[in-house]
Specification:
Blueprint lengths: L1 E4 L6 H8 L3 E2 L12 H10 L3 E4 L18 E4 L6 H14 L9 E4 L4 E4 L2
Parallel strand pairs: 1-2, 1-3, 3-4, 4-5
Antiparallel strand pairs: 5-6
Length: 118
């Protein structure tokens, strides 16, 4: 899977995705840090990458309708910190096949996972 983690995720997440054989290109790596959300979303789409973020600006499923993008994953933890985000993503990567999330809108919570298909 081709993935773009947003700048609001820990840098270690890149290594975690890579360890599960996903191709990762970061917002930092493309010099998009501080750019508007729309620019980050367009860059992810233009390169066919699923965007992983904590940014609630991406939570409107009407605006980011499944099937209109390579995939959008919103990470929503109750008390997010670097360790909890990495732990939860490791758990998800070990138990879920994220390759099936192409063009989906996904919300990852502390214990739940919601996938909206196109």
């Amino acid at each position: 899977m081709r993935i773009k983690p947003d700048e609001n995720l820990p840098a270690e997440i890149t290594e975690l995705f890579a360890s599960f054989n996903h191709e990762v290109d970061t917002v930092q790596g493309e010099s998009l840090v501080g750019f508007p959300d729309e620019a980050v979303f367009r860059a992810a789409g233009a390169s066919g990458r699923m965007l992983f973020t904590q940014d609630l600006d991406f939570s409107d499923i009407r605006k980011f309708r499944p099937g209109t993008h390579p995939g959008l994953v919103l990470i929503r933890l109750r008390d997010p910190n670097r360790r909890r985000i990495i732990e939860r993503m490791r758990q998800v990567l070990q138990t879920e096949s994220i390759d099936g999330w192409s063009q989906c809108f996904v919300v990852i919570g502390g214990t739940k996972l919601r996938v909206r298909n196109p």
